[in-house]
Specification:
Structural class: alpha+beta
Distance between the termini: 44 Å
Oligomer: single chain
Helix content: 25-40%
Low-confidence stretches: none
Number of helices: 6
Strand order of the largest sheet: 1-2-3-4-5-8-7-6
């Protein structure tokens, strides 16, 4: 089995630049990528969609990574999936360092200010994204269309409640979906 260092060398990823992780590369390094995701979501017991490393390569999602420090390992990942309204940002991962967290947030902000990207968020990330000028989607009909088939309870202020992993979570949609 290849090491993550081998992956970095093979794809010649420049430092401090995001690069895609192909499906075959993801299969080789799913344990490492899974660890980054688990680290980012440790405060809630892990990401509800990724219970084990195999869930990553079976997901059909798009992965990109960045190396922000002096070692050859990737330090952060960003995960999105193609949807009818564009690219939905669905998860992140990081090694816990300030630089990796900063890189992920900056990437999210850049993507969400671009046409065709959107996200469902809450809590601290919602506050950060809004403070950086990411547009909230407050049109209930649009949110319901984007989340077609998902049961949501609209709160009347641009936020809604949604069941994820068996638990109700407050959410807000942000970004610029294709409409």
């Amino acid at each position: 089995m290849k090491t993550l260092i081998d992956l970095i060398k093979e794809i010649s990823a420049p430092k401090n630049q995001w690069f895609p992780i192909t499906k075959s590369e993801l299969m080789d390094y799913e344990d490492d990528v899974f660890d980054l995701i688990q680290n980012a979501y440790a405060y809630i017991g892990g990401h509800s969609n990724y219970k084990n490393p195999k869930d990553l390569s079976l997901s059909g999602e798009d992965f990109e990574a960045i190396d922000v420090d002096n070692d050859p390992d990737i330090d952060a990942v960003s995960i999105s999936k193609k949807r009818p309204y564009g690219n939905k940002l669905v998860a992140t991962g990081h090694d816990g360092s300030k630089d990796a967290k900063r890189a992920v947030i900056k990437r999210r902000i850049d993507k969400l200010k671009s046409q065709g990207y959107y996200i469902e968020v809450s809590g601290k990330l919602q506050d950060i994204l809004l403070s950086k000028g990411v547009a909230p989607i407050t049109d209930e009909e649009l949110v319901r269309n984007i989340l077609k088939g998902k049961d949501i309870k609209w709160n009347g202020d641009g936020t809604y409640e949604r069941i994820l992993g068996g638990t109700s979570h407050p959410k807000m949609m942000l970004g610029k979906p294709n409409i």
